[in-house]
Amino acid sequence: MLKFIFMLVFLIPLCFISNFWWLVQGILYFMTFMFMMGCVMTYGFSGLSYIFGMDIMSFGLILLSFWICALMITASESVYHYKYFNGMFVFMVVFLLLMLYCTFSSLSLFSFYLFFEGSLIPTLFLILGWGYQPERLQAGVYLLFYTLLASLPLLIGLFNLYLLTGSLYIPNLHENINYLFFYLCLILAFLVKMPMFMVHLWLPKAHVEAPVSGSMILAGVLLKLGGYGLLRVYKLLMMSGLKYNYIWVGISLVGGFLVSLVCLRQTDLKALIAYSSVAHMGIALGGLMTMTYWGFCSAYTLMIAHGLCSSGLFCLANISYERLGSRSLLINKGLMNFMPSMTLWWFLLSSSNMAAPPSMNLLGEIGLLNSIVSWTWVSMVMLMLVSFFSAAYSLYLYSYSQHGMIYSGVYSCSMGYLREYLLLFMHWFPLNLLILKGEICMLWL
Questions:
Q1: What span, in angstroms and rounded, lies between the C-alpha atoms of 115 and 117?
Q2: Under DSSP, is residue 147 helix (H, G, I), strand (E, B) or coil?
Q3: Structural domain of residue 419, as residue ranges?
Q4: CA within 20 to 30 Å of 57's CA: 133, 136, 157, 400, which one?
Q5: What residue stretches are annotated with the NADH:quinone oxidoreductase/Mrp antiporter transmembrane domain (predicted)?
Q6: CA atoms of 55 and 48, how far apart (whole Å)
């Protein structure tokens, strides 16, 4: 594990050398494939080195982090083209990747907490430094304070856990602790990070003001930190979970339905995709809170799938924004006439977003439906509504943006760059290829 940390640390000086943008990008892709080929599929932790190691769950999320961070640089051509402090930009991406890598590979809950908080800093700088509107300052404050406020109880909970057990080493934690306050302390930070409905208001704000790279990493990896944290701490909270989890399942399912209705009223492309993330992660949270084998594995599967799908949709929204200068659906309509070659990609990623086969989202959502319905039949009503409206807002996004008269009435046509087609292909292809190896997601327990 340390060899990749050293590679990332030594990559940092290259970020500040002029015209090394493409070299850094190439090295990140190379590291992704190196990491992928070095996987050891065992039931325990492998690649142990000091406080770092990985199991199958860490492997999938670290690989996703590498892939999304490499794609972020590919998507941010405008930063390179207009010389918006591009050395500092690449440094922020590499530093963020380093934080995420350390977070997912930490073997101690304290080091996990340290890097979990550390990933907030480069994300904040990406939003403040390369965001589009003056409101990005407000979005940064939302992001910072929502996360910090919820994270302090987590730190206190970890200190208390160390007092009780004498260790924060993840593979050794097998106690079942049954205190309500302790239970809330340990999961609150992760619920905000997922984000659960009612503590989700920072997410649309941050997405709308962030540059495309910020949106990609937020949707692709940072929302998964919450799910990963819950999967790690829930073996300590089984007894408390049996008593109190129905609250979170209820909030997640009702919230998923309400957020789906909010999606149908959005006119901002990025806000619509951001709210759809809240709905999807709500279902994942509901399945995870059932504490069943199906629920855990399917929540993990949906996290990987959503990371690729949502990131690709933000790339598409940015491609339209760069040409039309607006994210409003009232202006971004009739894109089939304006950018006919992009319509296929809109269709493929929108259909993946509504969990159509053969995308990996389908595998995750079927497993989650299975786990939640087996937990209680009453959830069937909300699940039907969430599934239906999930399809409704995905079709709304596709049909409203692609069909209809062009807003300005000007008959012009724009092609995408080869870089953009490659970028979208590299989101969509793994999303549909990974379903062929769906059983791997079921191995980690």
A1: 5
A2: helix
A3: 1-38+47-442
A4: 157
A5: 107-389
A6: 10
- The total domain count for the chain is 1
Q: What tokens were used for 407?
A: 């807003």
- Collect all residues with Cβ–Cβ distance below 8 Å to 310 and sequence separation of at least 6: 219, 220, 273, 276, 277, 280, 353
In sequence order, the 6+-apart residues with CB closer than 8 A to the CB of 439 are: none
Residue type, 325: G
- Is pTM beyond 0.85? Reply is yes
3-state secondary structure 236-276: CCHHHHHHHHHHHHHHHHHHHHHHHHHHCCCCEHHHHHHHH
Residue that the structure tokens 């995408």 belong to:
416
**110, 168 in Cβ contact below 8 A?**
yes
445 residues of the chain, pLDDT tens digit each: 889 999 999 999 999 988 889 999 999 999 999 999 887 766 678 888 888 998 888 999 999 999 999 999 999 988 888 877 888 999 999 999 999 999 999 999 999 999 999 999 999 999 999 988 888 999 999 999 998 899 999 999 999 999 988 889 988 887 788 888 999 999 999 999 999 999 999 999 999 999 999 999 999 999 999 999 999 998 888 888 889 999 999 999 999 999 999 999 999 999 999 999 999 999 999 999 999 999 999 999 999 999 999 999 999 999 999 988 889 998 888 888 888 889 999 999 999 999 998 899 999 999 999 999 999 999 999 999 999 999 999 999 999 999 887 655 556 777 889 999 999 999 999 999 988 877 776 655 5
Compute CA distances 215 → 92, 163, 241, whole Å: 14, 39, 32
As given in the structure block, the two tokens for residue 48 are 């142990």
Reading the block at residue 357, the tokens are 């086969």
Instruction: Write the DSSP string, 28-81.
Output: HHHHHHHHHHT----SS-EEEETTEEE-HHHHHHHHHHHHHHHHHHHH-HHHHH
b/e code 135-158 from CB counts within 10 Å (16+ = b): ebeebbebbbebbeebbebbeebb
